[in-house]
Amino acid sequence: MRQVSCLLLLTLLLLTCGCGGGKPSPSKEEGVKEGVSAEHEPLVTDSFKYSLRSEHGTCDVFIDYPVSGPHEVVEALKSFVKSTLFEDGGESKSDSPEDLVRAYCADRQEHLAKTLEQMGIAQVSRANAPEEGIEIRKLCQTSRFVTFEVYRYSYITHGAHGEYSDYGVTFRLRDGHRFGNDLIERMDEALYAHILSGMREYFKVSSDEELQAICTIDLGEMPLPTFPPFLVRDGVRYHYSIYDICPFEMGDPVATIPYSVALPYMTKAGREMVENVPIP
Asked: Any residues with CB less than 8 A from the CB of 101 and at least 6 apart, and which?
């Protein structure tokens, strides 16, 4: 009887120890970064990819998808991924990442079939088949923000070259707010000069005259990129799209303004994302 009682007591103790459930709270050693409460669940993403080949061509997709984290952030990121994948916004699509990558490829295969029909092309060779794809990757995550990069490409057979776009989007981890042009408060000559410096560095030229020879626009009237700036590990990034300021063959130039330079030009909300927060 005494042995049975001891066994029951031991079982109860084991059950009590195992009833915490979920993940353990982060310790001080694990490092909760400044400005973020230990009660906040960290954002966790996982990677999903899929490829679909048919007589119309090949479609590929890769996404870093939220699997857990603060509800508002997870929902904002799910909506972002869906609206980026699908022309109709993807509101009717499943939240399952496996379903999303398959639905994307099926959707693009339909698009390729219609495009080839409109072009009067009944059949394409494997070597010259159309290709479409998209990558939505987590580029940078700190305790206050997460930035995703979207790379989309399309090659339709018999074309001179393919088309692609590459840009980033930053979200605030506190509430899922998606930043756009509200990162920068003002653009003046000093900040513009830093962007020009970034362009010279990208093209590996040393003077504005050499840069002007590359660009298709007047440097004195250089526009902002098609897509808004976003936050990366080492600063605020301006990523120009193909044709924005230079010919296709020169690519999509990037200028990253260090935070030490960019902070005075950022909005209050933008500064809160980076001040006193180490960028891993």
From this structure: 48, 49, 50, 61, 62, 63
Question: Where do the DSSP E strands lie in the chain?
Answer: 44-54, 57-68, 131-141, 145-155, 163-172, 230-232, 235-239, 254-258
pTM: 0.80
Which distant-in-sequence residues (6+ apart) come within 8 Å of 19 by Cβ? Answer: none
One-letter identity of residue 165: S
Asked whether the beta carbons of 43 and 66 are under 8 A apart, the reply is yes
State the CB neighbour count (10 A cutoff) for residue 188: 9
- Residues 6+ positions from 80 with CB-CB distance below 8 Å: 148, 169, 171, 178
What is the spatial distance between Cα 32 and Cα 69, in angstroms, rounded to a whole number?
15
Which token pair is 20?
């915490």
Edge-to-edge strands of the sheet including 254-258? 230-232, 235-239, 254-258
Give Cβ neighbours of residue 50 (< 8 Å, ≥ 6 apart): 60, 61, 101, 102, 104, 105
CA–CA dist 27, 11 (Å, integer): 28
What token pair was written down for 77?
């990121």
Query: Residue 202: CB partners within 8 Å, gap ≥ 6?
Result: 253, 254, 255
Q: Strand pairing partners for 230?
A: 237
Q: What is the pLDDT of residues 53-73, one digit of tens each?
A: 888 888 999 999 999 999 999
